[in-house]
Amino acid sequence: MAQINIGAIKFNWKGPYNNSTAYVVDDVVSSGGSSYVCILASQGNAVSSGTYWQIMSSAGTNGSNGTDLTSTLSARGDIVFKGASALTRLPKGTAGYVLTQGANDPEWGEAGGGKHTLLATTTISGSPTNVDFVNGTNGVVITSAYEYYVVDFINIASATDVQMLGMQYMRNGSAYTTGNYVYIGEEWYRASGSSSQNRRSAWGLNNYTFGGVGASNASGEQNLNAQLKFYPNGYGAELPNWKSETIWWQDNNQQVINYFSGTSVGTASEMSTFNGFRFFWTGDYNSNVTNKNAWSNQGKIKLYGVKA
User: pLDDT category, 196, cuts 50, 70, 90?
Assistant: First the structure.
């Protein structure tokens, strides 16, 4: 019976091109990052010869088409995206954050709302008198890009007994101490077998107080926790306001919970230079601050900016 040679019925991978190897039709080789298929048997004819070889797949052009990102990515966890005119690096996000889409570019945000941006974290050490967050200092960014701010106080305490956390916002890097702070709120106490509730308010102070009674620093009771939401309201367009929720131990083994709201009754234009916060401990709660006391070296404060 007659036999017919139909040649190769599949491509034959031969590895890197070798000038001393004899190649037949449908042999495939690699050279310079590209691959080539033999279309005419030969030996010693380079893959650049269109008589004997046809390109099967072309190598990319490193750098110009994104195949080489070593010049863009610089740290573990980095992500690359197409920016306005070039490939752009998005640094690794905070643990627990998720990737969200901004107006034009991707950004990191908290899971759920996706709009919170962690601006700073301070772990209390060195027994400071004030803990400040000021735009441009230690990486803090406080600008009109954020509609309001959230500050979390986690397991903090004063080094002195019967003190309360206070706040003054910053203007041009200095604490605003004019007597225009106002607050009102409810406070609940719980001791063994009894409880009470009080409404508290004050007008014309030089600070905002987070509570109407002092916090204990006795062993096992040094754990004030709070959250502040601060609304600049247009950075000069309107007066600012804020609200806080605070839990702490008062002396005599009483746990205290409160909800306070505050504002400043100066002029709206004063907020045009708003650029930060100052936090401190004082025994002058419910009145103008004249004395401050050191922080206990425990806990941390986290500052977030929130966009629309």
Answer: confident
CATH code for the domain defined by 12-57: 2.10.10.20
Contact indicator for 147, 308 with CB cutoff of 8 Å: yes
Q: Which two tokens stand for residue 135?
A: 């735009």
- Per-residue confidence band for 63, with pLDDT thresholds at 50, 70 and 90: very low
CA distance 167 to 182: 12
- For the chain, give every domain's residue range: 12-57, 98-306
pTM of the model: 0.65
- The three-point CA angle 292-297-298 to 5° equals 115
Sequence letter at residue 65: N
230/10: higher pLDDT: 230
pLDDT of 114: 45
* Helix spans in 97-195 (H): none
- Write b or e for each residue in 275-295: b if 16 or more Cβ atoms lie within 10 A of its Cβ, otherwise e: bbbbbbbbbbbeeebeebbbb
Q: What is the DSSP letter of 84?
A: S
Q: Which three-class secondary structure state does DSSP give residue 50?
A: coil
What's at 17, amino acid-wise?
Answer: Y
d(CA 202, CA 162): 19
**Spatial separation of the C-alpha atoms in residues 92 and 79, rounded to whole Å:** 7
